[in-house]
Amino acid sequence: MATTLFALLAIVLYLTAAGGLARPLLSGGQPLSRSALSLAGAAVLIHAGILLSIHRGALDLHFFAALSLVACVVSALTLVVNIWRPVAALGVIVFPLTALLLALDTFVAQPTSPQPLEWQIKLHVTVALFAFSVLSIAAALAILLAIQERALRHRQLGPWLRALPPLTLTETLLFRLIGAGFLLLSLTLLTGILFVDNLFGQHLVHKTVLSIIAWLVFGALLYGRWRHGWRGRSAVNLTLIGMGVLLLAFFGTKAVLELILHRTP
Predict the structure, then answer these.
(1) By CB count within 10 A, which of 8, 136, 220, 256 is most buried?
(2) Do 93 and 168 share a structural domain?
(3) Residues sharing a CB contact under 8 Å with residue 254, sequence separation 6 or more, in sequence order
(4) Torsion angle of alpha carbons 103, 107, 113, 119, nearest 10°?
(5) Same domain, 3 and 88
(6) What value does the mean pLDDT take over residues 4-29?
(7) 103 and 132 share one domain
(8) Domain range for residue 161?
């Protein structure tokens, strides 16, 4: 009962924070609300406490639990990004989605028993979690970048556009996040090679192949940026393609195994 109430509180805080960040984008006021970020910070702390409570402090990798965990980490990183480089619209995208995934894990998902994991696998999963989270934020920024570019191209200079950071700053932040995510994804693949013994027995072949494809896409994007100055639509498209492949790798195969085939990965 207490967990349900705390989950509802976190959901309300996430949505209220998103609304607080969205209001200036619609009215052309101050581009960032510190009070909204404070509400989101409280929501993240409650969310983390709920994850520890529901899953008994273990690293639960079942479908809805993993989604909720990733959402919590993405929201926390969104707060860090906004402290470093204010991008209010990022929270408008991330926080409502996090609220939805928390609701699914709390009210829809069946109770699960986390499987004990060796420290090597925990390290591999933790690095993978941060890689996916950082690249998720990069994908959200890529969407914002595409919207900004389209609005500028068609001279749709509304108040929301003036509230966003300059295009060059958004693009710089995008590539910094992609660089950090690429490094973490490289470490994910490396720790997977070192620590995962049986790819076929653990249903990890598809996940590994898709992760390598995503790694190649992000690597090509970073090389193109460094060597040829890729930016704009090319950067946005490759970022979204890479993230789409990574989403299939992390959660597409997991959804098929658990929700359709009812197998434990």
Answers:
(1) 136
(2) no
(3) 61, 63, 66, 265
(4) 10
(5) yes
(6) 85
(7) no
(8) 117-265
